[in-house]
Amino acid sequence: MYIVAIGASAGGIAAINEFFDNTPSDTGACFVIIQHLSPNHKSFMAGLLANRTLMNVVETQDNEEMLPNTVYLMTPGKNLWIEGNKLRVADKPQEEKVNLPINLFLKSLATQKKDKAIAVILSGAGADGSKGITCIKKNEGMVIAQDQTTAQFTSMPTNAVTTGCVDYIMTPAEMHQSIIKYITTGLMPQKGREVNTNMKNGTGIIDPINKIMMLIKDQKGINFADYKRSTIIRRIERRMNMLEISNIEDYVEHIDNYSDEIDTLHNEIFIGVTEFFRDEEAFGEIEQILPQIFASKPAGIGVRIWSAGCSTGEEAYSLAILIQEYLERTHELFNIKIFATDLNDIALSKASAGIYQEEQLVEVSDERRERFFEKKGEYYKVKQTIRDMVIFAKHNIITDPPFSKLDLLVCRNLLIYLEPQVQQSIFGIFDFSLNKDGYLFLGSSESLGNMGRYFEQISSKWKIFKHTSNQKLLMNRQFQVREFNNIPVDTRLSHNYNVSKKWNINNIDKSIDKIIQSLQDEYIPKGVIVNESYELIHSFGDVNEFIKIPANRISLNLLRMIRKDLSVAVGAALQNVFTSDRDFKYKNVNIHQDSEKKISLIAKIYVDEISNARYAVLLFEDKCHENYELKEHSFEFEEKAYERIADLESELKSNKEYLQALIEELESSNEELQSTNEELVSSNEELQNTNEELQSVNEELYTVNGEYHQKIEELTQVNDDINNLLAMTEITAIFLDKRMRIRRFTPSVKRVINLIESDVGRRLGDISTNMHYPTFIEDIQAVLNHLVPSEQIATGNEGQHYRVTITPYISAESNVKGVIINIADIPAMSQEVVS
Prior knowledge:
Radius of gyration: 42 Å
Number of domains: 6
Strand order of the largest sheet: 3-5-2-1-8-9-10
CATH architecture of the largest domain: 3-Layer(aba) Sandwich
Strand content: 15-25%
């Protein structure tokens, strides 16, 4: 049985009505409506919807078995989810955290019903449902969103479309067509049409699936040959179903004609389901092993972690938060590097930005949200302390060289999409990458296979393992893309020929490069090129004798790299050449103070004609070449050292004075800004809290208001029906309230009691009658007091007789609201009996 989950919030009632006005009652599917309902107001949805469909409409009870052709409604103040074929109901959590009932239900629906799950997102504010439809799509279900132009509130359908997981965008009136087609015409993965996988051409037979994968590889640079073929076929079939293409050859032609289809299919394959602290119990296990990871590391040493298949980064940031909490508790200092990798550029871009919607932080406690995220309008941004731990990079786990010396490797729910032999190959990569006693964290449905002998199981439920092997299985492994096996022989030969040809050209280029390098070493003097900031731009010749790369932090400033004995001379030469804009030369400069070897130091100025940037070429000469006819300056170390020191002191003094003035000005501005900022932050927090509360209340009230509005329309219709009925039957009746004021009367009453329309609201005792009934008012009061009906015979002014029946008016809640008086004519024959 297919389950159709309909998520709606503000403005959703009209869309729900439109949906069921057009949906047949015999689809065989079960419909579940999840709304944002106020727990303080009674919902009239069951009664309203019963007028729109012939299906049975019920309010869901806990443990209720789902039945076909039935509509189940969510109870106000409750959350709803699925277990097996039953609906479970529980009170909404009381803690002050955003409750997202649509996401909760859709996630359970995706897990329990897989491809038999259909999600419909209708009008509403916020982004509830966006995470849930991602799970639906990942499990092969179908997702439909309301056309934003028809929604009263567009946020929910717009956010759903933004996820890239929506199959159809349409009006509520059109949705039933796609739902019925999905259920009845075989357009679902397990009953999908047979794909003709043989496409003939003039050179042989090419598998069309492989051809599509080749097109993806050419355009996106990703080889899907190692992915499970069944997964690729299901994704292709989904796109064919969405495009209503029944033949695989036609789909290949569609790709050729519409280049953006490759992007769409690529994104379809790369649906990532992730969230912060996904499976909280599993992350609790990781938190328990952190002390063991850090215990084996001396303080200050780096800890290396790899999150493979990181998607949009929630998993990597969750690990960073756990580690930051540990370091704060223990007051230890470690260099943390979390390598978070994925193949999806769009996902990596989102991950790197570190910006998430509030709905994406549902699993993050309020305390963690406050400590590790910054509020940016409607979004939350990961704080810099957490962001600095994570390095995001595009990486193909199959073909790219792996990270090494890892203390923790997290790869959850990625391997299940790969062929078994590729999985085993990747476990070899993990064995190579992990340190001995490092930890491996897999998805709950993944296992190590025959690599289990190299690992010790820590958690069987959450698939956490400890690496116990010192072997490195990847020492001779070559990382290269695997070719498709079904490509025709002539195609493979052509491909190999091209590679070989390119290789020969590269060899020739390398030989020429060696010749050029040899000539440079022989004829061009040793030297470097620097810019005006003394930063090293280029070097030529062997300058290792003069330049030394410093330890620790690397700087490109030449004065930090030049050998100490040459630093004064080099600094003076560069200052002279940039100050005077003229070439300059020092002779007899000692390379080492304890050495007799001397060189000439030549500085030449060059100006870029386009950018006007200035560069200096610094040459280290064993003897002066005749090409450089420059005035020679003898280099006296002490004299030049004093001059250099004096210049530097003067420059330093000037910079200090400027900085001091700048600091004072900034401090003054900073104090003012700090004060203003604190006030703004305080006001913003108050406004934000108030806004969130108002937004939540507003959505609930809008839903309640919609129900009341429809109820009023329904009551108006019922009232009109009653008025027409009373007028048609010529019943003589008066409705009084408990104070005997007139509430309503039928037109025929005017024959007996002198009433006009404006008398509604007046006491009946103030109105004259055309009958003789002295105890009329007393009898009405008696019925009100004792709730016992009364029946009397009254005589009209013209001698006719009336039967006057007075009955208590009792409401549905068993409350006495007044009386109903019925006055019936007694026919002539009966009048004789009365006489």
